[in-house]
Write a structure and sequence with these properties.
The chain is mainly α and 317 residues long. The chain has 2 domains: 52 residues, no CATH class; 176 residues, MetI-like fold (Orthogonal Bundle), CATH 1.10.3720.10. The chain contains 15 helices and no strands. Helix 6 crosses helix 8 and helix 8 packs antiparallel against helix 11.
Length: 317
């Protein structure tokens, strides 16, 4: 018996090696790797490239025009890079361009916009985050009605509320002041921010809230020590939305303030639409870029957290 096994051992070894050898000769297994330049990839990346060019071309024209002198602009080639770079249009747009009766450029409007944006963003986000936390974790009588009113308020056109808000601000003595505009931005930003915070807090594990309640934590302790440290992405989303909306606002700024307290966008409109003197396109482009610089920088700094916060807030309603 042992001799028969010894004789059959080489044959068994060859037989066992055959499947492996056959697999090796048959080539690699698994899904075929995709070609890098397939039709699908060419279509996707080609479309993205066209869209990027479409949106970046106006920005390119604005930048190169703001760096040219007026004699070079009058040649008519708006796409050509500047032959001689000059920053005089930027300096004039910031400090000496006329915005109505005043000729101090955008500098005054910039600081007005800062004094409007900072307290408006802080107040609206603080109040909306507390509202969203209460609606998500602390069920109280009338919570659904309150939330419905807020959601409906998010879709009311601003133009409908212009005149009633003017009357309210006049009666409380804030019409024409920066704090009146801060109050307006805080109130009008409340509905959409409350919705965002409510959805985000509702997506957090409910066990954390229940465990904190078992340990005796109250409303403010849970909010400050548990919810806030976990809510950085949604706070970044709220900051970007509010800074962009408030900084770029023109309608409220021109209605609820006066020339001395005009925000930067209103002064930009006065510079670009001036009808007296020579039309300085390089100064107009520089002023436009200066006005849009703040929200653009904030978005580029915190863009990844913005996407995370939007995705987290959309998980659960």
């Amino acid at each position: 018996m042992a001799e028969q096994l010894l004789r059959a051992a080489p044959e068994l070894a060859v037989a066992s090696a055959m499947p492996a050898r056959a697999r090796a000769l048959s080539g690699p297994h698994g899904p075929r790797p995709r070609r890098r330049f397939s039709r699908r990839n060419v279509f996707i990346y080609g479309t993205l490239a066209l869209v990027a060019v479409y949106y970046l071309l106006p920005l390119y024209v604005m930048v190169v025009t703001s760096l040219k002198g007026m004699p070079e602009i009058r040649l008519g080639n708006i796409f050509s890079p500047p032959v001689e770079i000059t920053f005089e249009p930027w300096i004039k747009a910031w400090s000496t361009a006329c915005t109505g009766l005043n000729c101090d450029g955008l500098s005054r409007g910039f600081w007005n916009s800062v004094m409007i944006t900072v307290p408006s963003v802080f107040l609206s986000i603080s109040i909306a985050s507390i509202n969203g936390y209460a609606l998500a974790n602390w069920r109280f009588k009338g919570a659904e009605v309150f939330f419905t009113v807020l959601v409906v308020g998010a879709f009311i056109p601003y133009q409908v509320m212009l005149y009633p808000v003017v009357i309210v601000l006049r009666e409380i003595g804030l019409y024409g002041s920066l704090w009146g505009l801060v109050l307006v931005h805080t109130i009008f930003g409340m509905p959409i921010l409350t919705l965002l915070f409510r959805n985000y807090f509702a997506s957090l594990p409910e066990e954390l809230f229940k465990a904190a309640r078992v340990d005796g934590a109250g409303f403010w302790t849970i909010y400050l020590r548990i919810m806030l440290p976990m809510s950085l992405p949604i706070f970044v989303v709220a900051i970007i939305l509010q800074v962009t909306g408030i900084w770029n606002d023109f309608l409220f700024g021109v209605v609820y303030t006066k020339p001395d307290t005009y925000p930067m966008t209103v002064q930009l409109n006065n510079i670009v639409n001036a009808v007296q003197g020579v039309k300085e396109y390089n100064v107009n482009m520089a002023a436009t870029l200066l006005t849009g610089l703040v929200p653009l920088v904030i978005y580029f700094i915190s863009g990844k957290l913005f996407v995370r916060g939007i995705a987290a807030g959309a998980v659960k309603g």
